[in-house]
């Protein structure tokens, strides 16, 4: 395996402790020797192992097994959602429920590989900027690995469910007077000046864990879906998932790749606007705003990888309003019993909008990735749900409610 710049093509050895290309400062990708991997993988081999991220060990770039840090991540449910499919307007809809990961979000897939790589590099301190889920995940895996953890958060912009996790796992949490993009600039600079290992998604090793969602989807379905819808914040996940599908195809474990659907919130949709306007570069949004805190990012660092994934797969990018996100969040919960945070619901909201505008066929097979658990953002749930009633401890009062409402 080696690192390769996605822009200039320059290659670097795996022991190079770098996050971006030293020559042109572009993003890096991890490249495996796929001819060798092909000779060592099969579905029968994978199915003999536990259904978790490390089931697909041959695709994961950790050289020393003793450095692997795991909390049993991955192996998340893939639900066939017929009632939700009818609400969206399509024939076959599956929800990949990433809220079932150990810390309640898809970030655990990346952190098991990222923190394992930190141990291979003999790091003592790991750090990240976060809108919440990254901090929750990194703090847990750092605790498991015995590493010190520093987290930078935008003050007043992180849901309590996520902040509570970072605090409980013992991270050094610092809130800055700025947004996520400001926090990321600071932590990148810190990692370059101090012996601190950065674990935001600019780190190419971390994204290697996130690609395992693609392997699991094919493992569970037995085929490659036509479309996969993913919420986009810092934009690493959609490119990682698409890479996973491509690797299955390259190594002969699948015969197709899906079209990728990237969904952003209207108040934080620079990638969608770039594609809609036919621009060659991203125009950052200085003050991104959306109730979907996990994707409230105006200058996503992985936008080139996301653009490549959408274009190469002949996919689609779409933005949805906060109202559409809330509507989808309620539909997912009330039709299928699945509680997801607002950013997760964006994937389903985007699908519904695309169907309504005849952008995808109604007989399509679609997997919607729901990235985080409902309890990640309890304040939002209380805010958007119907208010509960408080009554005297009286049967008469209770009968009035039952008669009127049930």
Automatic annotation (TrEMBL):
Keywords, sorted A to Z: Amino-acid biosynthesis, Lyase, Pyridoxal phosphate, Threonine biosynthesis
Any GO BP: threonine biosynthetic process
Cofactor(s) required, per the database record: pyridoxal 5'-phosphate
Residue location of crosslink Isoglutamyl lysine isopeptide (Lys-Gln) (interchain with Q-Cter in protein Pup): 189
GO molecular function, one term: threonine synthase activity
Pathway of action: Amino-acid biosynthesis; L-threonine biosynthesis; L-threonine from L-aspartate: step 5/5
Sites of N6-(pyridoxal phosphate)lysine modification: 107
Protein name as catalogued: Threonine synthase
